[in-house]
Amino acid sequence: MARRITRREFFETTTLTAAGIAAASAGLGAAPPLPTRPFGRTGLQVTCLAFGCGSRFLMYEQEDTALQVLNGAIDQGIRYLDTAVAYGDGESERRVGQVVRTRRNEVVLATKIPTSARTRDAALRQVEGSLKRLQTDHLDVLHLHSATSRIWPPLKRPTAR
Length: 161
Known about the structure:
Elements lengths: L6 H19 L10 E3 L6 E3 L2 E3 L2 H4 L4 H13 L4 E3 L8 H13 L4 E6 L6 H15 L6 E4 L17
Parallel strand pairs: 3-4, 4-5, 5-6
Antiparallel strand pairs: 1-2
Helix pairs in contact: 1-3, 3-4, 4-5
């Protein structure tokens, strides 16, 4: 009887396979552009696929491999990178910064403010740290990580008369 693989094993295998295909196809010329979509009402256009820089990105123990995968994703047309200081306690942002410092104009860069930084001063300190780790002077998108109604009460709807 064949052993069932876990979801984590599946993603690790497919991610490594995709990285290998991207690396092998790098010499074959430019990939066709990915379709883009408007990012809300921001005026930004983002690719329909994003590169999430969380656990799958951090699973690469060898930093060189992680950077090759991220460069390969950009080479293949992915233009939206999503990271957070909470991913690996800043390690994801630091790795992304090594690529972004030379390819900043090619990507829409998003990061997140953690739940521990919900005051103005704390949020500004977090953004400053993120900018340093990401080796950039600006962010395109800044999300509030885990924003819930426990932090900001939902708007009350008017009652019908």
